[in-house]
Write a structure and sequence with these properties.
The protein has 330 residues and is α/β, with parallel strands linked by helices. Helix content is 40%, strand content 21%. It is built from 10 helices and 13 strands. The strands form 3 sheets. Strands 1, 2, 3, 4, 5, 6, 11, 12 and 13 form a 9-stranded mixed beta sheet that branches. Strand 7 and strand 8 form a beta hairpin. Helix 6 runs parallel beside helix 7, helix 7 packs parallel to helix 9 and helix 8 runs antiparallel to helix 9. The longest helix is centred in the last third of the chain and has 27 residues.
Length: 330
Amino acid sequence: MYSILKVAIVILNWNGKELLEKFLPSVTQYSESAEVYVADNASTDDSVAFIKLKFPKVKIIENATNGGYAKGYNDALQQVDADVFCLLNSDVEVTPNWLNPIISEFEINDSTAIIQPKILDYKNRTFFEYAGAAGGFIDQYGYAYCRGRIFDTIEKDDHQYDNDLEIFWTSGACFFIRKSIFEILGGFDESYFAHYEEIDLCWRAFNAGFKAKYIGASTVYHVGGATLNTVNPKKTYLNFRNSLFTLTKNAEGVLFGIIFTRLTLDGIAGLRFLLRLKFAHFVAILRAHFSFYWHLPRLLSERKKLPKRKNYFKTKSIVWSYFVKKRYYY
Protein backbone atom coordinates (compact mmCIF):
# COMPACT_ATOMS: atom_id res chain seq x y z
CA MET A 1 0.00 0.00 0.00
CA TYR A 2 1.32 3.43 -0.95
CA SER A 3 0.79 6.02 1.74
CA ILE A 4 1.09 9.78 1.66
CA LEU A 5 1.80 9.64 5.39
CA LYS A 6 5.26 8.92 6.69
CA VAL A 7 4.97 6.27 9.42
CA ALA A 8 7.67 5.37 11.95
CA ILE A 9 7.49 2.26 14.13
CA VAL A 10 9.49 2.90 17.29
CA ILE A 11 10.28 0.00 19.62
CA LEU A 12 11.56 0.89 23.07
CA ASN A 13 14.17 -1.55 24.33
CA TRP A 14 15.92 -2.13 27.63
CA ASN A 15 18.08 -5.25 27.87
CA GLY A 16 15.67 -7.03 25.55
CA LYS A 17 17.89 -8.77 23.04
CA GLU A 18 15.92 -12.04 23.30
CA LEU A 19 12.63 -10.25 22.65
CA LEU A 20 14.08 -8.36 19.69
CA GLU A 21 15.49 -11.58 18.27
CA LYS A 22 12.06 -13.21 18.49
CA PHE A 23 9.71 -10.39 17.48
CA LEU A 24 11.63 -7.90 15.35
CA PRO A 25 11.55 -10.20 12.27
CA SER A 26 7.75 -9.95 11.95
CA VAL A 27 7.92 -6.17 12.27
CA THR A 28 10.51 -5.78 9.53
CA GLN A 29 8.76 -8.34 7.31
CA TYR A 30 5.25 -6.87 7.48
CA SER A 31 5.96 -3.14 7.76
CA GLU A 32 7.29 -2.27 4.32
CA SER A 33 5.47 1.06 4.26
CA ALA A 34 7.09 2.28 7.49
CA GLU A 35 10.54 3.00 8.89
CA VAL A 36 11.49 0.85 11.87
CA TYR A 37 13.44 2.26 14.82
CA VAL A 38 14.67 0.74 18.06
CA ALA A 39 15.02 3.26 20.86
CA ASP A 40 17.44 1.78 23.36
CA ASN A 41 17.09 2.87 26.99
CA ALA A 42 20.77 2.53 27.98
CA SER A 43 20.80 -1.26 27.83
CA THR A 44 23.68 -3.13 29.43
CA ASP A 45 23.29 -6.25 27.30
CA ASP A 46 24.34 -6.46 23.65
CA SER A 47 20.98 -5.41 22.19
CA VAL A 48 22.41 -2.57 20.13
CA ALA A 49 25.25 -4.63 18.69
CA PHE A 50 22.77 -7.39 17.84
CA ILE A 51 20.50 -5.01 15.92
CA LYS A 52 23.39 -3.51 14.00
CA LEU A 53 24.54 -6.98 12.99
CA LYS A 54 21.25 -8.72 12.24
CA PHE A 55 18.95 -5.83 11.25
CA PRO A 56 21.13 -3.22 9.52
CA LYS A 57 18.09 -1.44 8.02
CA VAL A 58 16.59 -0.78 11.46
CA LYS A 59 17.50 2.67 12.75
CA ILE A 60 18.86 2.89 16.29
CA ILE A 61 18.33 5.69 18.80
CA GLU A 62 20.45 5.43 21.95
CA ASN A 63 18.96 7.19 24.96
CA ALA A 64 21.42 8.30 27.60
CA THR A 65 19.48 6.82 30.54
CA ASN A 66 16.73 4.33 31.29
CA GLY A 67 13.89 6.76 31.91
CA GLY A 68 11.19 4.12 31.56
CA TYR A 69 8.46 4.11 28.94
CA ALA A 70 7.45 7.76 29.30
CA LYS A 71 10.82 9.52 29.21
CA GLY A 72 12.28 6.89 26.91
CA TYR A 73 9.74 7.66 24.21
CA ASN A 74 9.74 11.41 24.85
CA ASP A 75 13.49 11.50 24.27
CA ALA A 76 13.51 9.14 21.31
CA LEU A 77 10.62 10.63 19.36
CA GLN A 78 12.35 13.99 19.20
CA GLN A 79 14.78 12.30 16.82
CA VAL A 80 12.17 10.66 14.56
CA ASP A 81 10.93 12.33 11.38
CA ALA A 82 7.42 11.03 10.62
CA ASP A 83 3.77 12.06 10.34
CA VAL A 84 2.58 9.14 12.47
CA PHE A 85 4.36 7.37 15.31
CA CYS A 86 3.66 3.73 16.14
CA LEU A 87 4.94 2.98 19.63
CA LEU A 88 5.32 -0.78 19.65
CA ASN A 89 6.33 -3.00 22.55
CA SER A 90 9.27 -5.29 21.92
CA ASP A 91 7.13 -8.35 22.76
CA VAL A 92 4.58 -7.82 19.97
CA GLU A 93 4.21 -9.98 16.86
CA VAL A 94 2.57 -8.13 13.97
CA THR A 95 0.67 -9.71 11.10
CA PRO A 96 0.43 -9.27 7.32
CA ASN A 97 -1.51 -6.13 6.36
CA TRP A 98 -1.60 -4.85 9.94
CA LEU A 99 -0.61 -1.33 8.97
CA ASN A 100 -2.89 -0.70 6.00
CA PRO A 101 -6.25 -0.28 7.81
CA ILE A 102 -4.65 2.03 10.34
CA ILE A 103 -2.89 4.21 7.79
CA SER A 104 -6.14 4.42 5.80
CA GLU A 105 -8.00 5.67 8.87
CA PHE A 106 -5.43 8.39 9.48
CA GLU A 107 -5.58 9.44 5.82
CA ILE A 108 -9.38 9.47 5.57
CA ASN A 109 -10.28 11.04 8.93
CA ASP A 110 -8.29 14.08 9.97
CA SER A 111 -10.08 14.09 13.34
CA THR A 112 -8.57 10.72 14.31
CA ALA A 113 -5.50 11.41 16.42
CA ILE A 114 -4.74 8.07 18.12
CA ILE A 115 -5.34 4.45 17.03
CA GLN A 116 -5.05 0.95 18.44
CA PRO A 117 -5.40 -2.39 16.58
CA LYS A 118 -6.95 -5.57 17.94
CA ILE A 119 -4.51 -6.99 20.51
CA LEU A 120 -4.62 -10.75 21.01
CA ASP A 121 -2.65 -12.94 23.42
CA TYR A 122 0.54 -14.31 21.88
CA LYS A 123 0.49 -17.34 24.19
CA ASN A 124 -3.25 -18.03 23.90
CA ARG A 125 -3.95 -16.76 20.42
CA THR A 126 -7.73 -17.08 20.33
CA PHE A 127 -8.13 -14.76 23.34
CA PHE A 128 -7.70 -11.03 23.78
CA GLU A 129 -4.64 -9.78 25.61
CA TYR A 130 -4.94 -7.96 28.91
CA ALA A 131 -3.19 -4.74 27.85
CA GLY A 132 -5.66 -3.10 25.50
CA ALA A 133 -7.71 -5.97 24.06
CA ALA A 134 -10.26 -4.32 21.74
CA GLY A 135 -9.97 -0.75 22.97
CA GLY A 136 -10.02 0.96 26.34
CA PHE A 137 -12.52 2.90 28.45
CA ILE A 138 -12.45 4.30 31.98
CA ASP A 139 -14.98 4.73 34.77
CA GLN A 140 -15.69 7.79 36.88
CA TYR A 141 -13.10 6.75 39.46
CA GLY A 142 -10.22 6.18 37.06
CA TYR A 143 -10.36 2.39 36.77
CA ALA A 144 -9.47 1.32 33.25
CA TYR A 145 -11.10 -1.57 31.39
CA CYS A 146 -11.39 -2.77 27.79
CA ARG A 147 -13.73 -4.36 25.35
CA GLY A 148 -12.62 -7.95 25.70
CA ARG A 149 -11.07 -7.55 29.17
CA ILE A 150 -12.54 -6.33 32.45
CA PHE A 151 -10.24 -6.76 35.44
CA ASP A 152 -8.97 -10.37 35.14
CA THR A 153 -11.81 -11.66 32.94
CA ILE A 154 -10.56 -11.99 29.38
CA GLU A 155 -12.83 -12.82 26.45
CA LYS A 156 -12.24 -15.20 23.59
CA ASP A 157 -11.99 -13.51 20.20
CA ASP A 158 -15.11 -14.67 18.38
CA HIS A 159 -14.92 -11.67 16.02
CA GLN A 160 -17.35 -9.78 18.24
CA TYR A 161 -15.07 -6.73 18.14
CA ASP A 162 -14.02 -6.66 14.49
CA ASN A 163 -15.61 -3.24 13.96
CA ASP A 164 -14.01 0.20 14.07
CA LEU A 165 -15.02 2.23 17.11
CA GLU A 166 -14.21 5.48 18.85
CA ILE A 167 -12.71 4.56 22.23
CA PHE A 168 -11.32 6.43 25.21
CA TRP A 169 -7.77 5.09 25.46
CA THR A 170 -5.42 2.94 23.44
CA SER A 171 -2.84 0.49 24.69
CA GLY A 172 0.80 1.47 24.98
CA ALA A 173 1.65 -2.00 23.65
CA CYS A 174 0.72 -0.80 20.14
CA PHE A 175 -0.03 2.91 20.17
CA PHE A 176 -0.39 5.00 17.00
CA ILE A 177 -0.47 8.79 17.28
CA ARG A 178 -0.01 11.68 14.90
CA LYS A 179 3.28 13.40 15.58
CA SER A 180 1.59 16.81 15.58
CA ILE A 181 -0.85 15.73 18.31
CA PHE A 182 1.91 14.16 20.42
CA GLU A 183 3.76 17.47 20.31
CA ILE A 184 0.64 19.56 21.05
CA LEU A 185 -0.04 17.42 24.13
CA GLY A 186 3.57 17.67 25.29
CA GLY A 187 4.23 13.94 25.12
CA PHE A 188 4.01 11.57 28.05
CA ASP A 189 4.11 12.63 31.69
CA GLU A 190 7.61 11.49 32.69
CA SER A 191 6.74 11.28 36.38
CA TYR A 192 4.82 8.07 35.58
CA PHE A 193 7.97 6.15 34.54
CA ALA A 194 5.79 3.28 33.27
CA HIS A 195 2.12 2.19 33.29
CA TYR A 196 -0.93 4.41 32.73
CA GLU A 197 1.03 7.07 30.83
CA GLU A 198 -0.80 6.18 27.61
CA ILE A 199 -4.17 6.52 29.37
CA ASP A 200 -3.14 9.91 30.73
CA LEU A 201 -2.08 11.01 27.24
CA CYS A 202 -5.35 9.76 25.71
CA TRP A 203 -7.37 11.51 28.43
CA ARG A 204 -5.56 14.77 27.76
CA ALA A 205 -6.21 14.25 24.04
CA PHE A 206 -9.92 13.64 24.74
CA ASN A 207 -10.15 16.77 26.88
CA ALA A 208 -8.47 18.74 24.10
CA GLY A 209 -11.06 17.53 21.58
CA PHE A 210 -9.10 14.81 19.75
CA LYS A 211 -10.38 11.31 18.95
CA ALA A 212 -8.96 7.85 19.66
CA LYS A 213 -10.12 4.85 17.62
CA TYR A 214 -9.92 1.08 17.59
CA ILE A 215 -9.45 -0.52 14.17
CA GLY A 216 -10.67 -4.12 14.20
CA ALA A 217 -9.22 -5.07 10.81
CA SER A 218 -5.66 -4.80 12.17
CA THR A 219 -4.35 -7.52 14.48
CA VAL A 220 -1.22 -7.95 16.58
CA TYR A 221 -0.22 -10.51 19.22
CA HIS A 222 1.23 -9.34 22.53
CA VAL A 223 3.07 -11.45 25.09
CA GLY A 224 2.32 -9.05 27.96
CA GLY A 225 4.31 -8.81 31.16
CA ALA A 226 7.57 -9.51 29.38
CA THR A 227 9.28 -6.59 31.11
CA LEU A 228 7.18 -6.37 34.30
CA ASN A 229 4.68 -9.17 34.91
CA THR A 230 1.33 -8.98 36.67
CA VAL A 231 2.57 -10.64 39.87
CA ASN A 232 5.23 -7.99 40.40
CA PRO A 233 4.34 -5.61 43.29
CA LYS A 234 6.13 -2.80 41.43
CA LYS A 235 3.49 -3.05 38.72
CA THR A 236 0.76 -2.86 41.37
CA TYR A 237 2.41 0.23 42.82
CA LEU A 238 2.76 1.99 39.47
CA ASN A 239 -0.76 1.14 38.31
CA PHE A 240 -2.47 2.36 41.50
CA ARG A 241 -0.30 5.46 41.86
CA ASN A 242 -0.39 6.50 38.22
CA SER A 243 -4.11 5.98 37.87
CA LEU A 244 -4.58 8.39 40.80
CA PHE A 245 -2.26 10.84 39.06
CA THR A 246 -4.32 10.55 35.88
CA LEU A 247 -7.67 10.92 37.61
CA THR A 248 -6.56 13.99 39.57
CA LYS A 249 -5.19 15.78 36.52
CA ASN A 250 -7.96 15.05 34.05
CA ALA A 251 -11.32 14.16 35.60
CA GLU A 252 -14.20 16.60 35.19
CA GLY A 253 -16.36 17.25 38.23
CA VAL A 254 -15.99 17.71 41.98
CA LEU A 255 -12.58 16.22 42.56
CA PHE A 256 -12.80 15.68 46.33
CA GLY A 257 -15.76 13.29 46.09
CA ILE A 258 -14.22 11.39 43.17
CA ILE A 259 -10.84 10.96 44.86
CA PHE A 260 -12.33 10.06 48.26
CA THR A 261 -14.42 7.29 46.66
CA ARG A 262 -11.44 6.09 44.67
CA LEU A 263 -9.17 5.91 47.72
CA THR A 264 -11.86 3.93 49.56
CA LEU A 265 -12.11 1.45 46.69
CA ASP A 266 -8.32 1.14 46.66
CA GLY A 267 -8.47 0.37 50.36
CA ILE A 268 -10.91 -2.47 49.68
CA ALA A 269 -8.55 -3.78 47.01
CA GLY A 270 -5.72 -3.65 49.54
CA LEU A 271 -7.76 -5.67 52.03
CA ARG A 272 -8.43 -8.28 49.35
CA PHE A 273 -4.68 -8.59 48.82
CA LEU A 274 -4.20 -8.90 52.57
CA LEU A 275 -6.83 -11.65 52.89
CA ARG A 276 -5.15 -13.52 50.05
CA LEU A 277 -1.81 -13.18 51.88
CA LYS A 278 -0.34 -11.02 49.13
CA PHE A 279 1.38 -8.72 51.58
CA ALA A 280 3.77 -7.15 49.06
CA HIS A 281 0.84 -5.99 46.92
CA PHE A 282 -0.94 -4.57 49.97
CA VAL A 283 2.19 -2.59 50.81
CA ALA A 284 2.44 -1.51 47.16
CA ILE A 285 -1.00 0.13 47.38
CA LEU A 286 0.00 1.91 50.59
CA ARG A 287 3.16 3.18 48.92
CA ALA A 288 1.14 4.28 45.90
CA HIS A 289 -1.15 6.36 48.11
CA PHE A 290 1.70 7.99 50.02
CA SER A 291 3.41 8.86 46.74
CA PHE A 292 0.12 10.30 45.47
CA TYR A 293 -0.18 12.53 48.55
CA TRP A 294 3.40 13.70 48.05
CA HIS A 295 2.73 14.65 44.43
CA LEU A 296 -0.74 16.12 45.05
CA PRO A 297 0.27 19.81 45.02
CA ARG A 298 1.93 19.37 41.62
CA LEU A 299 -1.02 17.40 40.27
CA LEU A 300 -3.51 20.04 41.39
CA SER A 301 -1.38 22.72 39.75
CA GLU A 302 -1.39 20.75 36.48
CA ARG A 303 -5.13 20.19 36.80
CA LYS A 304 -5.76 23.93 36.75
CA LYS A 305 -3.90 24.27 33.44
CA LEU A 306 -5.54 21.36 31.59
CA PRO A 307 -8.90 21.53 29.78
CA LYS A 308 -11.78 19.30 30.95
CA ARG A 309 -14.66 17.61 29.14
CA LYS A 310 -17.78 15.96 30.50
CA ASN A 311 -19.02 12.44 29.72
CA TYR A 312 -15.61 10.82 29.81
CA PHE A 313 -17.04 7.58 31.26
CA LYS A 314 -19.61 5.10 29.90
CA THR A 315 -19.84 3.17 33.18
CA LYS A 316 -19.92 5.10 36.46
CA SER A 317 -18.19 2.33 38.43
CA ILE A 318 -16.72 -0.71 36.72
CA VAL A 319 -15.88 -2.02 40.21
CA TRP A 320 -19.58 -2.05 41.17
CA SER A 321 -20.60 -3.47 37.81
CA TYR A 322 -18.03 -6.28 37.94
CA PHE A 323 -17.84 -7.30 41.60
CA VAL A 324 -21.43 -6.59 42.71
CA LYS A 325 -23.56 -6.93 39.58
CA LYS A 326 -21.33 -9.71 38.21
CA ARG A 327 -21.13 -8.23 34.73
CA TYR A 328 -17.91 -9.74 33.45
CA TYR A 329 -18.09 -8.82 29.77
CA TYR A 330 -18.20 -5.52 27.93
